[in-house]
Write a structure and sequence with these properties.
The complex is a heterodimer.
Chain A (H helix, E strand, L loop, with lengths): L1 H13 L18 H10 L4 H21 L5 H24 L7 E6 L7 H12 L3 E4 L6 H10 L4 E5 L3 H17 L5 E4 L5 H7 L3 E2 L3 H11 L2
Parallel strand pairs in A: 1-2, 1-3, 3-4, 4-5
Chain B lengths: L1 E7 L8 H7 L9 H15 L4 E8 L2 E4 L4 E4 L2 E3 L2 H8 L4 E8 L2 H12 L3 H31 L4 E6 L11 H6 L9 E2 L5 E2 L3 E9 L18 H8 L1
Antiparallel strand pairs in B: 1-2, 2-6, 3-4, 4-5, 6-10, 7-10, 8-9
Classes of the chains: A alpha/beta, B alpha+beta.
């Protein structure tokens, strides 16, 4: 079992999606995360073992390497593609309840801001951390966040902003959420955001990179 | 008040796979294989899109306030703050410019991301940034030619949103321009639509200079342009 799980993890770390995928060149022609995950499930490995022992640690390694600037966004996104090709085989087990996610995470770029790349990177890493991600998109009003929290009261929430002007909308959204849902954990991120700003507006956590957010959520459910 | 507008086909712009690789953070010679193929394919798609557009208008009556760190053009006071004010000081006139890659490239990026292909979306996004920059460079060269005749020089470009010049000042900048100038509009957050657009000032005068290292003026350490310069 360990061997196949290690192979899946290696595929995800290297961004090897499937057999026909030419990347990375040194794994050309080999099975990718897609085929190996299918094989693992067909051969009695449980879906939560695939998730907990291959996908999550592999994406954690990818996130750590990104934080240390050993890889860049394109390589991280290639790993995400590989992870998604494995995850599609796990989806039916999530839907049936046989495999449980770590929790729910609602994410969106705040009102007035149309930037989505940073948000998408964080979404992808958090999904790779075993969480169900509810992505509200860009230019998300406070009301839309509140509606999503109302429907998923246990969820943690992530707010993204790229501009100093739209960052101000974070403050308003955090205040309204905390007013009605004081226990909801709110993570914030984006180029102009700092720890100081996080504390000032009453959010719970700030991370300059996606893996920091994954690690924070992990300790919430530990 | 003089001005000029341009329309650049993507093939006229100086876009290259290695340069876009740099924008994606790859070092020199590191962007190869599947990544360079994806960039090449995105550039081919970009060539099918409508041309990039760029325009400038030169305003002669410009007043500087050293105390307030402001610049006044046509009775509109721009609170550009210390850095931009000091860099533009000495300008006899200011060229206000706008450039846009148009909506097509952002749309391609959005569609790819919505389909779950974040990497392709990210590459289109970088191509869009490069289109705008390359269009601006051609506009700048043209303006340089125009001003050199009268023995004048140009400053760097300065954009709202950088060097402590607040992005919402873009709303004032657009008041100087005819409506729908260059096909760009501002949304309620003072952001430009199409997204891949740039606006700003270029100072013109005998006593101004081009600063070849503007990263020293800016406190953003996460900027890709700074990263590229550091690697060079």
């Amino acid at each position: 079992m360990d061997e196949i799980l290690n192979k899946i993890a290696r595929c995800i770390q290297s961004g090897k999606i499937d057999k026909v995928s030419p990347y990375p060149p040194d794994m050309k022609g080999e099975d990718g995360a897609d085929e190996l995950t299918k094989f693992a499930l067909e051969n009695g490995i449980k879906p939560d073992q695939v998730l907990d022992l291959a996908l999550i640690p592999a994406m954690e390694t990818v996130g750590d390497r990104f934080s240390r600037k050993e890889i860049y966004v394109p390589q991280m996104l290639m790993s995400a593609k590989a992870m998604n090709s494995a995850m599609k085989h796990l989806k039916p087990f999530f839907q049936s309840g046989e495999t449980k996610r770590k929790g729910k995470f609602i994410i969106g770029t705040v009102a007035g801001d149309l930037h989505d790349i940073g948000k998408n990177l964080v979404s992808m890493m958090i999904e790779g951390g075993g969480w169900e991600v509810i992505d509200l998109g860009v230019d998300v009003s406070t009301e839309k966040f509140m509606k999503a929290i109302g429907e998923n009261p246990q969820a943690a929430v992530g707010l993204s902003a790229l501009l100093t002007t739209t960052m101000e909308n974070m403050k308003k959204t955090v205040a309204v959420i905390k007013d009605s849902y004081a226990d909801t954990r709110i993570l914030i991120g984006g180029a102009p955001v700092t720890w100081e700003y996080c504390e000032k507006i009453g959010a719970d956590f700030y991370s300059p990179d996606p893996q920091g957010a994954v690690n924070y959520l992990k300790q919430l459910v530990a | 008040m003089k001005g000029k507008n341009f329309s650049f086909n993507i093939s006229e712009l100086d876009l290259s796979v290695p340069r876009i690789g740099q924008m994606l953070n790859f070092g020199e010679g590191e962007c190869e294989g599947v990544f360079s193929e994806m960039i090449f394919s995105a550039l081919e798609e970009a060539e099918k899109l409508p041309p990039a557009r760029a325009e400038y208008t030169i305003f002669e009556a410009v007043k500087f306030s050293d105390a307030e760190k402001t610049i006044e053009i046509n009775d509109i006071i721009f609170e550009v703050n210390r850095i931009v004010s000091s860099q533009l000081r000495g300008s006899d006139s200011i060229a206000v410019f706008l450039c846009t890659a148009g909506p097509g490239i952002s749309e391609k990026s959005r569609q790819a991301m919505e389909a779950g292909d974040l990497l392709t979306g990210y590459i289109y996004d970088a191509v869009g940034n490069e289109i705008v920059d390359a269009a601006f460079n051609l506009l700048y060269k043209d303006l340089q030619k125009h001003t050199e005749v009268s023995g004048k020089k140009l400053t760097n470009r300065y954009n709202p949103g950088y060097c402590d010049w607040k992005v919402d000042e873009q709303e004032k900048l657009f008041r100087l321009m005819p409506d729908n100038y260059c096909g760009i509009r501002l949304n309620s957050s003072a952001l430009m639509d199409p997204e891949k657009s740039v606006s700003g000032f270029i100072g013109i005068g005998r006593n101004v200079r081009f600063n070849s290292f503007t990263c020293g003026l800016c406190d953003r350490t996460d900027c890709i342009y700074r990263n590229i310069k550091d690697k060079e």
